[in-house]
Design goal:
This is Site-specific integrase. It comes from Rhodocytophaga rosea. InterPro entries: Arm-DNA-bind_5, DNA_brk_join_enz, Integrase-like_cat_sf, Integrase_recombinase_N, SAM-like_dom, Tyrosine_recombinase_XerCD. Pfam families: Arm-DNA-bind_5, Phage_int_SAM_5. The chain is of the alpha+beta class and about 300 residues long. Helices cover about 45% and strands about 15% of the residues. It has a three-stranded antiparallel beta sheet, with helices on one face. The protein has a two-stranded antiparallel ribbon with strand order 4-5. β6 and β7 form a beta hairpin. The two termini are about 55 Å apart. The relative contact order is 0.07.
Protein backbone atom coordinates (compact mmCIF):
# COMPACT_ATOMS: atom_id res chain seq x y z
CA UNK A 1 0.00 0.00 0.00
CA UNK A 2 1.37 3.39 -0.99
CA UNK A 3 1.84 6.16 1.51
CA UNK A 4 -0.48 8.46 -0.42
CA UNK A 5 -3.37 6.02 0.01
CA UNK A 6 -5.61 6.53 3.02
CA UNK A 7 -6.75 3.96 5.56
CA UNK A 8 -9.27 4.58 8.31
CA UNK A 9 -11.66 2.72 10.62
CA UNK A 10 -14.83 4.13 12.13
CA UNK A 11 -17.39 2.59 14.47
CA UNK A 12 -20.97 3.83 14.17
CA UNK A 13 -24.45 2.69 15.13
CA UNK A 14 -27.62 1.96 13.19
CA UNK A 15 -30.80 2.30 15.30
CA UNK A 16 -33.18 -0.64 15.42
CA UNK A 17 -36.96 -0.41 14.80
CA UNK A 18 -37.66 0.01 18.53
CA UNK A 19 -35.60 3.26 18.51
CA UNK A 20 -34.06 2.12 21.78
CA UNK A 21 -31.31 -0.23 20.71
CA UNK A 22 -28.73 0.01 17.94
CA UNK A 23 -26.30 -2.31 16.21
CA UNK A 24 -22.64 -1.28 16.11
CA UNK A 25 -21.00 -1.35 12.68
CA UNK A 26 -17.43 -0.82 11.49
CA UNK A 27 -16.66 1.18 8.37
CA UNK A 28 -13.37 0.34 6.63
CA UNK A 29 -12.07 2.95 4.19
CA UNK A 30 -9.12 2.50 1.86
CA UNK A 31 -8.37 5.21 -0.67
CA UNK A 32 -11.92 6.60 -0.27
CA UNK A 33 -13.55 3.26 -1.02
CA UNK A 34 -15.71 2.04 1.85
CA UNK A 35 -17.21 -1.20 3.10
CA UNK A 36 -19.20 -1.76 6.27
CA UNK A 37 -19.58 -4.77 8.52
CA UNK A 38 -21.62 -5.64 11.59
CA UNK A 39 -19.45 -6.01 14.68
CA UNK A 40 -21.83 -8.38 16.43
CA UNK A 41 -22.49 -5.93 19.29
CA UNK A 42 -25.76 -4.17 20.18
CA UNK A 43 -26.28 -1.41 22.76
CA UNK A 44 -28.82 1.17 23.83
CA UNK A 45 -28.74 4.25 21.59
CA UNK A 46 -28.26 6.59 24.56
CA UNK A 47 -25.20 4.60 25.64
CA UNK A 48 -23.20 5.33 22.48
CA UNK A 49 -20.46 7.96 22.46
CA UNK A 50 -20.23 9.03 18.83
CA UNK A 51 -17.15 11.22 19.30
CA UNK A 52 -15.18 8.48 21.05
CA UNK A 53 -16.67 5.74 18.83
CA UNK A 54 -17.30 3.53 21.83
CA UNK A 55 -19.96 2.62 24.36
CA UNK A 56 -20.53 4.67 27.50
CA UNK A 57 -20.41 3.14 30.94
CA UNK A 58 -22.35 4.21 34.03
CA UNK A 59 -22.57 3.01 37.62
CA UNK A 60 -25.56 0.88 36.65
CA UNK A 61 -24.37 -0.25 33.21
CA UNK A 62 -20.89 -1.36 32.29
CA UNK A 63 -20.05 -1.65 28.59
CA UNK A 64 -16.42 -2.55 29.15
CA UNK A 65 -16.91 -5.89 27.40
CA UNK A 66 -18.40 -4.19 24.33
CA UNK A 67 -15.50 -1.76 24.08
CA UNK A 68 -12.99 -4.57 24.50
CA UNK A 69 -14.63 -6.43 21.60
CA UNK A 70 -14.50 -3.31 19.43
CA UNK A 71 -10.82 -2.76 20.23
CA UNK A 72 -10.07 -6.40 19.46
CA UNK A 73 -11.84 -6.11 16.09
CA UNK A 74 -10.00 -2.88 15.30
CA UNK A 75 -6.65 -4.54 16.02
CA UNK A 76 -7.55 -7.56 13.86
CA UNK A 77 -8.47 -5.36 10.89
CA UNK A 78 -5.30 -3.28 11.32
CA UNK A 79 -3.19 -6.45 11.46
CA UNK A 80 -4.71 -7.67 8.18
CA UNK A 81 -3.87 -4.36 6.52
CA UNK A 82 -0.30 -4.46 7.83
CA UNK A 83 0.17 -8.05 6.68
CA UNK A 84 -1.00 -7.23 3.15
CA UNK A 85 1.26 -4.19 3.15
CA UNK A 86 4.26 -6.23 4.33
CA UNK A 87 3.63 -8.84 1.62
CA UNK A 88 3.50 -6.10 -1.00
CA UNK A 89 -0.02 -7.01 -2.07
CA UNK A 90 -2.67 -4.56 -3.31
CA UNK A 91 -4.90 -3.39 -0.44
CA UNK A 92 -8.61 -2.67 -0.65
CA UNK A 93 -11.35 -2.25 1.93
CA UNK A 94 -13.28 -5.16 0.41
CA UNK A 95 -10.28 -7.49 0.52
CA UNK A 96 -9.62 -6.64 4.18
CA UNK A 97 -13.23 -7.36 5.08
CA UNK A 98 -13.29 -10.59 3.06
CA UNK A 99 -10.12 -11.85 4.72
CA UNK A 100 -11.53 -11.11 8.17
CA UNK A 101 -14.89 -12.76 7.48
CA UNK A 102 -13.33 -15.70 5.64
CA UNK A 103 -15.19 -14.79 2.46
CA UNK A 104 -12.17 -14.08 0.28
CA UNK A 105 -13.79 -16.11 -2.48
CA UNK A 106 -12.33 -17.74 -5.57
CA UNK A 107 -8.82 -16.68 -6.48
CA UNK A 108 -8.25 -15.40 -10.00
CA UNK A 109 -4.88 -15.85 -11.70
CA UNK A 110 -3.53 -13.63 -14.45
CA UNK A 111 -2.50 -16.19 -17.08
CA UNK A 112 -5.63 -18.25 -16.54
CA UNK A 113 -7.83 -15.15 -16.73
CA UNK A 114 -5.98 -13.87 -19.82
CA UNK A 115 -6.39 -17.23 -21.54
CA UNK A 116 -10.12 -17.26 -20.73
CA UNK A 117 -10.36 -13.83 -22.35
CA UNK A 118 -8.75 -15.18 -25.53
CA UNK A 119 -11.25 -18.07 -25.55
CA UNK A 120 -14.09 -15.57 -25.36
CA UNK A 121 -12.66 -13.60 -28.28
CA UNK A 122 -12.50 -16.80 -30.32
CA UNK A 123 -16.20 -17.41 -29.69
CA UNK A 124 -16.93 -13.87 -30.89
CA UNK A 125 -15.26 -14.44 -34.25
CA UNK A 126 -17.75 -12.13 -35.98
CA UNK A 127 -16.58 -9.23 -33.83
CA UNK A 128 -12.85 -9.96 -33.57
CA UNK A 129 -10.53 -10.77 -36.45
CA UNK A 130 -8.09 -13.67 -36.45
CA UNK A 131 -5.29 -11.12 -36.36
CA UNK A 132 -6.61 -9.58 -33.15
CA UNK A 133 -6.87 -12.97 -31.47
CA UNK A 134 -3.37 -13.88 -32.67
CA UNK A 135 -1.99 -10.66 -31.17
CA UNK A 136 -3.55 -11.47 -27.79
CA UNK A 137 -1.89 -14.90 -27.91
CA UNK A 138 1.45 -13.16 -28.52
CA UNK A 139 0.93 -10.96 -25.46
CA UNK A 140 -0.06 -14.03 -23.43
CA UNK A 141 3.22 -15.70 -24.43
CA UNK A 142 5.24 -12.67 -23.33
CA UNK A 143 3.40 -12.61 -20.00
CA UNK A 144 4.01 -16.32 -19.54
CA UNK A 145 7.75 -15.94 -20.22
CA UNK A 146 7.92 -13.04 -17.77
CA UNK A 147 6.13 -14.92 -14.99
CA UNK A 148 8.26 -18.02 -15.56
CA UNK A 149 11.36 -15.82 -15.27
CA UNK A 150 10.17 -15.00 -11.74
CA UNK A 151 10.04 -18.75 -11.02
CA UNK A 152 6.25 -18.74 -10.85
CA UNK A 153 3.61 -20.66 -12.78
CA UNK A 154 1.06 -17.88 -12.49
CA UNK A 155 0.24 -14.85 -10.35
CA UNK A 156 -2.96 -13.75 -8.63
CA UNK A 157 -4.76 -10.88 -10.35
CA UNK A 158 -4.82 -9.00 -7.06
CA UNK A 159 -1.01 -9.09 -7.00
CA UNK A 160 -0.74 -7.27 -10.33
CA UNK A 161 0.34 -3.79 -9.27
CA UNK A 162 2.41 -0.93 -10.68
CA UNK A 163 5.67 -2.69 -9.78
CA UNK A 164 4.54 -5.74 -11.75
CA UNK A 165 3.75 -3.53 -14.77
CA UNK A 166 7.14 -1.79 -14.57
CA UNK A 167 8.96 -5.12 -14.27
CA UNK A 168 6.99 -6.50 -17.22
CA UNK A 169 7.93 -3.44 -19.26
CA UNK A 170 11.63 -3.98 -18.47
CA UNK A 171 11.26 -7.64 -19.48
CA UNK A 172 9.69 -6.69 -22.81
CA UNK A 173 12.44 -4.19 -23.59
CA UNK A 174 15.34 -6.48 -22.67
CA UNK A 175 14.24 -10.10 -23.21
CA UNK A 176 15.65 -11.78 -26.31
CA UNK A 177 13.88 -15.00 -27.25
CA UNK A 178 15.37 -17.83 -29.30
CA UNK A 179 13.26 -16.67 -32.26
CA UNK A 180 14.56 -13.10 -32.27
CA UNK A 181 18.00 -11.53 -32.56
CA UNK A 182 17.11 -8.53 -30.41
CA UNK A 183 14.56 -7.31 -27.87
CA UNK A 184 11.45 -5.51 -29.07
CA UNK A 185 11.29 -1.75 -29.56
CA UNK A 186 9.22 0.69 -27.50
CA UNK A 187 6.17 0.74 -29.77
CA UNK A 188 6.05 -3.07 -29.92
CA UNK A 189 6.24 -3.22 -26.12
CA UNK A 190 3.45 -0.66 -25.87
CA UNK A 191 1.16 -2.88 -27.94
CA UNK A 192 1.66 -5.67 -25.38
CA UNK A 193 0.82 -3.21 -22.60
CA UNK A 194 -2.38 -2.09 -24.33
CA UNK A 195 -3.66 -5.66 -24.58
CA UNK A 196 -2.77 -6.45 -20.96
CA UNK A 197 -4.43 -3.20 -19.89
CA UNK A 198 -7.61 -4.17 -21.75
CA UNK A 199 -7.74 -7.51 -19.90
CA UNK A 200 -7.13 -5.84 -16.53
CA UNK A 201 -9.89 -3.31 -17.23
CA UNK A 202 -12.19 -6.24 -17.83
CA UNK A 203 -11.19 -7.53 -14.39
CA UNK A 204 -12.15 -4.17 -12.91
CA UNK A 205 -15.55 -4.25 -14.61
CA UNK A 206 -16.12 -7.71 -13.15
CA UNK A 207 -15.10 -6.33 -9.72
CA UNK A 208 -12.15 -8.70 -9.41
CA UNK A 209 -9.78 -5.72 -9.25
CA UNK A 210 -10.45 -2.57 -7.26
CA UNK A 211 -7.99 -0.31 -9.07
CA UNK A 212 -6.10 0.01 -12.32
CA UNK A 213 -2.43 -1.08 -12.00
CA UNK A 214 -1.70 1.12 -15.02
CA UNK A 215 -2.75 4.34 -13.26
CA UNK A 216 0.87 5.18 -12.46
CA UNK A 217 2.32 3.78 -15.68
CA UNK A 218 2.25 5.99 -18.75
CA UNK A 219 2.43 4.36 -22.15
CA UNK A 220 4.50 6.56 -24.43
CA UNK A 221 4.56 5.99 -28.16
CA UNK A 222 7.71 6.77 -30.08
CA UNK A 223 6.98 8.83 -33.16
CA UNK A 224 7.96 6.85 -36.24
CA UNK A 225 8.95 8.80 -39.33
CA UNK A 226 7.38 6.76 -42.09
CA UNK A 227 8.75 6.98 -45.61
CA UNK A 228 6.53 6.42 -48.64
CA UNK A 229 7.34 4.31 -51.66
CA UNK A 230 7.98 6.25 -54.82
CA UNK A 231 6.32 5.32 -58.11
CA UNK A 232 9.64 3.95 -59.32
CA UNK A 233 9.94 1.70 -56.26
CA UNK A 234 6.39 0.44 -56.74
CA UNK A 235 7.16 -0.39 -60.38
CA UNK A 236 10.30 -2.27 -59.33
CA UNK A 237 8.26 -4.25 -56.82
CA UNK A 238 5.65 -5.08 -59.48
CA UNK A 239 8.27 -6.39 -61.92
CA UNK A 240 10.45 -8.30 -59.43
CA UNK A 241 10.05 -12.09 -59.72
CA UNK A 242 10.86 -12.57 -56.00
CA UNK A 243 12.78 -15.72 -56.82
CA UNK A 244 9.58 -17.24 -58.24
CA UNK A 245 8.42 -17.78 -54.66
CA UNK A 246 4.64 -18.08 -54.96
CA UNK A 247 4.02 -17.17 -51.30
CA UNK A 248 6.07 -13.98 -51.58
CA UNK A 249 4.36 -13.12 -54.86
CA UNK A 250 0.97 -13.47 -53.21
CA UNK A 251 2.01 -11.19 -50.35
CA UNK A 252 3.40 -8.70 -52.91
CA UNK A 253 0.14 -8.71 -54.88
CA UNK A 254 -1.96 -8.12 -51.76
CA UNK A 255 0.37 -5.31 -50.71
CA UNK A 256 0.08 -3.64 -54.13
CA UNK A 257 -3.68 -4.06 -54.03
CA UNK A 258 -3.69 -2.29 -50.65
CA UNK A 259 -1.70 0.59 -52.13
CA UNK A 260 -4.15 1.12 -54.97
CA UNK A 261 -7.36 0.67 -52.96
CA UNK A 262 -6.43 2.11 -49.56
CA UNK A 263 -7.43 -1.12 -47.82
CA UNK A 264 -5.43 -2.27 -44.83
CA UNK A 265 -3.26 -5.27 -45.61
CA UNK A 266 -5.13 -7.47 -43.11
CA UNK A 267 -8.47 -6.61 -44.72
CA UNK A 268 -7.15 -7.01 -48.24
CA UNK A 269 -5.81 -10.48 -47.42
CA UNK A 270 -9.34 -11.55 -46.40
CA UNK A 271 -11.00 -10.08 -49.49
CA UNK A 272 -13.41 -12.33 -51.38
CA UNK A 273 -15.12 -11.96 -54.76
CA UNK A 274 -18.43 -10.99 -53.15
CA UNK A 275 -16.69 -8.01 -51.57
CA UNK A 276 -15.80 -6.58 -55.00
CA UNK A 277 -18.14 -5.13 -57.64
CA UNK A 278 -18.04 -3.09 -60.84
CA UNK A 279 -19.41 0.42 -61.01
CA UNK A 280 -22.52 1.23 -63.03
CA UNK A 281 -20.41 1.77 -66.16
CA UNK A 282 -18.71 -1.58 -65.82
CA UNK A 283 -15.30 0.06 -66.01
CA UNK A 284 -13.96 0.21 -62.48
CA UNK A 285 -13.72 -2.25 -59.62
CA UNK A 286 -14.69 -0.99 -56.18
CA UNK A 287 -14.53 -2.59 -52.75
CA UNK A 288 -17.37 -2.44 -50.28
CA UNK A 289 -16.87 -0.59 -47.00
CA UNK A 290 -15.05 -2.10 -44.07
CA UNK A 291 -16.75 -1.94 -40.68
CA UNK A 292 -15.01 -2.94 -37.45
CA UNK A 293 -12.14 -4.58 -39.26
CA UNK A 294 -14.59 -6.79 -41.18
CA UNK A 295 -15.55 -6.64 -44.86
CA UNK A 296 -19.28 -6.15 -45.22
CA UNK A 297 -21.76 -5.73 -48.04
Amino acid sequence: MKSKESFSLKFFIIPQPDNIHAKIFLRITVDRKKVEMYTGSTIRIDMWNEAAQQAKSTKKTSNTGVNEDLLKLKNQITDIKRRLQYEGKPISSKLIKDIHTGAVGEKHFLLEYFNDHISQLEKLSKEYSKGTIKNYRVTYKHLQNFIISKRLKDIELLQVDTKFINDFDFHLMTYISSDNKSAMDRNSANRQHKRLKAVLHKGMKEEILDKDPYNSFKIKDNTVNRTFLSEEEIELLKKHDLGNNLSLQKVRDIFLFSIYTGLRFGDASQLKTNHVSKDNKGQYWTCNKIVDNKLSN
